[in-house]
Amino acid sequence: MAQNLPSNKTIFSGLQPSGNLHIGNYLGAIKQWVRLQENNTALFCVVDQHAITVPYEPKELQNRILDAAAMYLAAGVNPEKSIIFVQSHVAAHTELAWLLSTVTPYGNVTRMTQFKDKSKKLSSKDAISLALFSYPVLMAADILLYNTNVVPVGEDQVQHIELARDIAERFNKQYGPVLTMPEAYIPQETARIMSLTDPKKKMSKSDGEKTYIALTDTAEVIRKKIASAVTDTDPIFSFKKSGPAVQNLLAIYKAFSEKEDQDIEKAFEGKGYKDFKESLAEVIITALSPIQEKYKTLREDDTDLRFTLGRGMHRAQQIANSTLHQVKEVMGLL
Ligand code: ATP
Ligand code: LTN
C-alpha cells in the first residue's frame, strides 16, 4: 500500500535517546521527517521519558538527549520550519498520559508486541516496570497533545498508533470531540531495514555493533560492516528475485543513492558480491559524511543546540497546554 506524501497536515514523531542511532532510524524515520517538514506543520521530539522505561545509565542520559537532538538537526530537520524539543520539557505529556489512561482498556495494552519483546529481553521480572507497560499511553499523549494528523514511523510502531487512535475515539465518545484522530505514515521501501547479520530481524541498536550501521560510524567501520554483512547463495541483484539478505542491501543502496531499481540492477548484473558491497559502502559513506560533519560541529559546542531546544520547548508548551486545558475541562476537572 503506497501512501501519498502528506501536505498541509500536522506531523509529530519522536525517537528515544537510548543509544546509537542507526541507518534504520535514519531511513525509516529522520529522513522522512526532513521531507515532511516542507509542506506540513511538524514537531519532532526527543522522547526521553520513553527511554527511562527500561534500565538505563542516568549519567549518560543528558548526553544522549543532546546527541539525538543534534542528529535531527544534522540530518536536515530545520528548526526554522519544525518544532524540535525534548519530551520532559513539556509537562503536559505525562499529565495527559494519566488522563488518557482512564479511558484506556487494560486488555488493549496487554496486546502490545513491543512490550512483550522488550520485557522478554530484560534480565529479571523486577526490571519490567509499570512504565514499560504503560509506555503506549504516553506515546498516545505525545501524539494527541498536538492535534496531530500524521505520524511518520517505521512499521514496528503501527500497533502503538492504532492504540492512540482507539484512545482518541474512546475519549471523544465519552467526553466530546476534543482529540484529533492521527494516522501512521510508513514510507514503503524503507519501512523495515533489516539486520546486517540476520535479514529476518529488523536492524536494531539492541542486537550488537555488527548488526547495524550507526550514523556516527567512520568510513572504515562502514566498509568493514558491509563487507561482512550476510548475503544469499547466488549473486543475483534483483529487487524481486534476490533472497532477503540481498534485497535488504539493495533497499539500503536505493535509499541512499536515490537511484531507480532498474539502474541499480543493471549496474551490478553479472558482478559478484564484492563489487556490490564496495559500491554500497561508498554510497553510504557519501550520504552520511555531510551529516557527520554537521553533527560534530553541533556537539562540539552545545550552546546553539540548547537554544534551539529551549525555543522548541516554548512553542510546544503553547500547543500542548491548550489541548490539556480542553481535556481537563471536558473531563470535569476544576
Ligand atoms: P530497539 O533497540 O528498541 O529495537 P530501535 O533501534 O528499533 O530500538 P527505536 O527507537 O525503537 O529504535 O525506533 C525509532 C524509530 O526508528 C521508529 O520510528 C522506528 O520505527 C524506526 N526504526 C527503527 N528501526 C528501524 C528499522 N530497522 N527500519 C526502519 N525503521 C526503523
Ligand atoms: N515508541 C516510539 C518512539 C515514540 C514515538 C512517539 C514515535 C514515542 N512517542 C510519538 C512517534 C510518535 C519508538 O519506540 N520508536
From TrEMBL:
Gene that this polypeptide is encoded by: trpS
Compartments, record wording: Cytoplasm
Species in which this protein is naturally found: Candidatus Andersenbacteria bacterium RIFCSPHIGHO2_12_FULL_45_11
EC number: 6.1.1.2
Summary of subunit composition and partner proteins: Homodimer.
Gene Ontology biological process terms, A to Z: tryptophanyl-tRNA aminoacylation
Sequence motif 'HIGH' region, residues: 17-25
Keywords recorded for this protein, A-Z: Aminoacyl-tRNA synthetase, ATP-binding, Cytoplasm, Ligase, Nucleotide-binding, Protein biosynthesis
Protein name, entry field: Tryptophan--tRNA ligase
